[in-house]
Design a protein that fits this description.
Number of strands: 0
Structural class: mainly alpha
Number of domains: 1
Strand content: under 5%
Order of helices and strands: HHHHHHHHH
Shape: globular
CATH superfamily: Glycerol uptake facilitator protein
Number of helices: 9
Helix content: over 70%
Distance between the termini: 23 Å
CATH architecture: Up-down Bundle
CATH class: Mainly Alpha
Length: about 190
């Protein structure tokens, strides 16, 4: 996933909206199809983000040091991913009531707990590994990693905000998820550099 170092905030915003859209397509498929096919199709979202060079917060967290991503830029990426993701979720809520019910049921399982935080850490770790493997020339990290985190019930903050949009709801667990995804990515980056 490319990062624009020249400070063009409009390009940053555009590529962040693009990433939210691609992840929203995968998340819609997950909510619509469920297990076992939904998690596999969801991987298309991250493949699209990587191939198209879009800005996904969870795909950038572990690379902030080696890509020299400015803190302001990672914050812009996060905020745009969250706002655009929620709005895409609202859009999906208008076209399929089954998906809305599935999203509401999913949101009702979230909480602010240590277990939820750990699930967020583990998702962040998988996201870093998946993107790192893509950067090294293989899609296998995405093809296996995305279904892995979904089947395991790990929590992805951008997918979660899209689900909240579909459910037309808000839940404070999103904050725990953001922090967990960020720290999980940084942890794997740190141990890979030791």
């Amino acid at each position: 996933m490319c990062y624009n170092e020249d400070g063009d905030d409009m390009e940053l915003v555009k590529k962040s909206i693009g990433a939210s859209f691609l992840i929203s397509l995968g998340n819609f498929a997950l909510l619509k199809l469920g297990n076992p096919i939904g998690p596999v199709i969801f991987a298309l979202g991250l493949l699209g983000v990587c191939y198209m060079g879009q800005n996904l917060f969870t795909g950038k967290c572990g690379f902030i040091f080696e890509d020299k991503i400015k803190y302001k830029d990672i914050l812009i990426i996060l905020i745009v991913n969250l706002i655009a993701g929620y709005l895409f979720g609202l859009m999906y809520s208008l076209i399929d009531t089954d998906v809305v019910n599935n999203a509401v049921n999913k949101v009702n399982t979230w909480d602010i707990s240590l277990a939820f935080f750990i699930k967020s850490l583990l998702c962040g770790a998988i996201m870093y590994i998946a993107v790192l493997m893509y950067r090294k020339g293989t899609n296998l990290g995405i093809i296996y990693g995305i279904p892995l985190f979904i089947f395991c019930g790990f929590q992805h903050c951008i997918a979660n905000i899209i689900t909240l949009g579909v459910a037309r709801a808000f839940d404070l667990s999103i904050i725990i998820c953001i922090i967990g995804n960020f720290l999980g990515s940084l942890f794997v980056w740190y141990i890979s550099k030791s």
